[in-house]
Design a protein that fits this description.
Blueprint lengths: L3 H22 L5 H8 L15 E4 L3 E5 H13 L9 E4 L10 H11 L1 H14 L2 E3 L6 H8 L6 E4 L13 E4 L2 H8 L4 E4 L2 E8 L8 H12 L7 E6 L1 H4 L3 H9 L8 E4 L3 H9 L3 H9 L16 E6 L6 E3 L7 E3 H11 L5 E7 L6 H16 L7 E5 L3 H9 L2 H7 L3 E2 L22 E5 L15 E5 L2 H10 L11 E2 L5 E2 L21 E2 L37 E6 L6 H4 L12 H4 L18 E2 L6 E2 L1 H10 L4 E4 L12 H8 L2 E6 L4 H9 L3 E5 L13 E5 L8 E7 L5 E7 L4 H9 L2 H8 L1
Parallel strand pairs: 2-3, 2-5, 3-4, 5-6, 8-9, 8-11, 9-10, 14-15, 14-17, 15-16, 17-18, 22-25, 25-26, 26-27
Antiparallel strand pairs: 1-7, 4-21, 12-13, 19-20, 22-28, 23-24, 27-30, 28-29, 29-30
Length: 747
């Protein structure tokens, strides 16, 4: 069992810290508040206001996936610290491309990424970090199975870290620089979250699953409705949902911008801890069970409350192109026809970190089994991604894998694959309009396969499986029939299945490597000629006399500009450890407001249009600083800090938008970029393509505003007022060039 001594220590102090906070607050506390106040860096002396106060926390652990770990650990190495201060792990899950099947795909990944895997293994060994080998599983599933515990707090360099909320843990997605703070034994700063309560009544039944809860919530709150807030689920309905089902709901909370999502400790969590060989943790949690739930009367202290009756909840299908476009299945077929979405379903994909539990696989296999018995085979391509080696081994033993293969399914590696763009697809051409449906969590344009014409929809694994047999989006398994091989009309019955395996979990092939007790003798080599890895060099501190004068506009982004638009995944993942090489993908997916094209902006030095990275490099070579302008919820999606590092590396000085997504705004601050917002969002319209831009930032201070002067080519000027959210420490990062610069200076 991992970290038992740490967990005992957390629980020993938990009651006293919560009681002290309750005295200060003078009222009942929500569960989220209890964990937050129990993890303050300093003792509670004052109440904190959600959405306003910056607060320092002491998380219990750090988790990193292989794509983000590269840059996080390169930064950690530059800080000059001999060993991590808190339990930390690296998980090799993102760099495995899905193409032909698990065995061959894993072998290909191990060969292709050997340099990166060797680097991560040696860095982990040197600095006391646990290392999970390729094939061991997806980071969030492995954390749920091994590390998450009720009442704990962790951070992870991936936006879906909140998966651990299914086990009652506050788990927050961050950038690599934040992870470095915690691994270095420093306090971790976060704006104290607001609280959104989701009251669940009733009980799920029939075709409706935990996935439908978050699909419904996403439709209510939208992709930015949870920004700066913890979403806490409560009520009898919450206790009725399985532990892994709770994880599914928390995982996809990233798609509403939530800081994290959380369920209170209950019997379902104890059962999951027990079956994953952590019963001792469950017994410790039982001793303080009242402290691991919201207090009676705390409901009125949520900033917002949403109520959902699970008895009445319909299965949902969300999309395309955004995870918050929510369709109850009863109206989805009509929507497909009215919106002219491609009706033919090309591929159905189940599994991933959010929906690969035993329960998910059981219920999906029950649909596949009855289809097989009725003479049906899948009409769409059908892929299955187990979330971990433990899940894969268990469903192989219990027969679910065999059923999936018998109906025509393809089992992929225990890795992220198609969910993050690591999918080598052969059935459609680039630009060919088509529909796919997944049980994943994110469906932005180009997200899964790099094809902007792919209409990607999100649903529960059970619904996805059913649609695979119909081969079309307009099929409703609750009401419709399918013709079998004999020409008979057959109807699928409701899915069934156990939440947990009756015979326990199989561990499968052990993928964990413990670090050396003393890593001082371990040498970490980086080839200076490597195309995959590059040592980091400090960013220079700003020159206030010239850096913010006569800046050029690199890009005025139109509409949605996620971190996938700013720094794409897919084939670019191989460069995550090489800042200069990966910077060649900077903003190539963003739409230019002036011409509605991607990767096509005007170079003000030449008057010609070129690819965005080329123009940025030209400006940098000529000593010309530049800015980017964007719209609402800029930087939503992945925690990808490369989306902040690349603009900084290529000479950018500020990002000016209508509003930011939380993680991305923090990442910009950490890297020494200025994240600014329009005081009046309508001023976005004043930005012209050939503007020269001045920012008055010499005297920037907490709570101050920044004056931006737009010098138009016709000789006229506009003054625009901008806001920022930087506190004193964050301004200190900015003044020395980055947070890492300040850390290295102190060390």
């Amino acid at each position: 069992m991992f970290d038992l001594d740490l967990i005992k220590k957390v629980y020993t102090g938990f009651k006293g810290k919560v009681d002290a906070a309750k005295k200060v607050l003078g009222r009942p506390m929500t569960y989220a508040e209890k964990i937050l106040y129990a993890h303050l860096w300093n003792e509670t002396v004052t109440p904190y206001t959600g959405g306003k106060d910056f607060v320092e926390f002491a998380p219990d652990r750090v988790a990193m996936q292989d794509a983000t770990a590269q840059m996080a650990l390169l930064q950690f190495m530059s800080a000059g610290i001999p060993k991590v201060a808190v339990p930390s792990t690296v998980h090799c899950d993102h760099l495995i491309q899905a193409e032909v099947g698990s065995a061959k795909d894993l072998l290909s990944a191990e060969n292709e990424n050997k340099e990166v895997y060797d680097f991560l293994a040696s860095v982990s060994n040197k600095y006391g970090i646990g290392f999970w080998k390729p094939g061991a599983g997806i980071i969030h599933q492995v954390v749920l199975e091994n590390y998450a515990f009720p009442g704990g707090m962790m951070i992870g360099t991936d936006s879906h870290t909140p998966n651990a909320g299914g086990l009652g843990m506050i788990a927050i997605g961050v950038g690599g620089a934040d992870a470095v703070d915690v691994m270095a034994g420093m306090p971790w700063e976060l704006k104290f979250p607001k609280l959104i309560g989701v009251k669940l009544t009733g009980k799920l039944s029939g075709w409706t699953s935990p996935k439908d809860v978050i699909l419904k919530v996403a439709g209510i709150l939208t992709v930015k409705g949870g920004t700066g807030a913890i979403v806490e689920y409560f009520g009898e309905g919450a206790d009725n949902i399985s532990c892994t089902g709770k994880g599914t709901i928390c995982n996809m909370g990233a798609e509403i911008g939530a800081t994290t999502s959380l369920f209170a400790y209950d019997k379902k969590m104890y059962d999951y801890l027990a079956i994953t060989e952590r019963e001792e943790v469950g017994k410790l949690a039982n001793e303080i069970a009242d402290y691991l739930r919201p207090d009676e009367g705390s409901e009125k202290y949520y900033d917002q409350v949403i109520e959902i009756n699970l008895d009445e909840l319909e299965p949902h299908i969300n999309g395309p192109f955004t995870p918050d476009l929510a369709w109850p299945i009863s109206i989805f077929a009509q929507a497909v026809k009215e919106k002219e979405y491609p009706e033919e379903l090309k591929v159905a994909l189940i599994g991933s970190c959010t929906n690969s539990s035993y329960e998910d696989m059981e219920r999906s296999a029950s649909v596949a089994k009855q289809a097989l018995e009725m003479g049906l085979k899948v009409k769409s391509e059908f892929t299955i991604t187990p979330g971990s080696e433990q899940i894969r081994a268990t469903i192989e033993r219990d027969g679910q894998l065999e059923i999936f293969e018998k109906v025509g399914g393809l089992v992929l590696a225990n890795a992220c694959g198609p969910c993050i763009g690591q999918w080598k697809r052969h059935d459609v051409k680039e630009g060919e309009k088509n529909s796919i449906i997944t049980s994943y969590n994110r469906n932005f344009s180009k997200r899964n396969d790099g094809n902007p014409a792919t209409n990607a929809f999100v649903a529960s694994p059970e619904i996805v499986t059913a649609l695979a047999f119909a081969g079309k989006l307009t099929f409703n398994p609750l009401t419709d029939t399918i013709k079998n091989s004999k020409g008979e009309d057959v109807k699928l019955a409701e899915p069934t299945g156990d939440e947990l395996p009756k015979n326990g979990y199989l561990k499968g092939v052990n993928g964990y490597v413990a670090p050396a007790a003393d890593g001082s003798a371990v040498n970490v080599e980086i080839d200076p000629n490597s195309k995959r890895l590059q040592r980091l060099f400090p960013f220079v501190h700003p020159n206030f006399e010239k850096d913010y004068k006569n800046m050029h506009l690199l890009l005025k982004a139109k509409g949605k500009c996620t971190t996938d638009h700013i720094s794409m995944a897919g084939p670019w993942l191989r460069f995550r450890g090489h800042l200069d090489n990966i910077s060649n993908n900077m903003f190539i997916g963003a739409v230019n407001w002036f011409n509605d094209k991607t990767n096509h902006v005007k170079n003000l030095l030449t008057g010609n249009h070129d690819e965005v990275p080329n123009v940025a490099r030209d400006y940098k070579a000529n000593g010309i600083p530049w800015v980017v302008v964007g719209e609402e919820n800029y930087g939503e999606g992945s925690s990808r800090e490369h989306a902040a590092m690349e603009p900084r590396h290529l000479g950018g000085k500020a990002i000016i938008v209508k509003s930011f997504a939380r993680i991305h705004e923090t990442n910009l601050k950490k890297q020494g970029m200025l994240p600014l917002t329009f005081a009046d969002p309508a001023d976005y319209d004043k930005i012209r393509e050939d503007d020269k831009i001045d920012l008055d930032v010499k005297d920037i201070a907490p709570g101050s505003q920044v004056v931006m002067t737009l010098k138009h080519s016709d000789g006229t000027k506009d003054e625009v007022i901008l806001n920022h959210t930087m506190n004193k420490q964050q301004i200190d990062w900015f003044k020395v060039g980055s947070a890492l610069n300040l850390m290295a200076k102190k060390n």
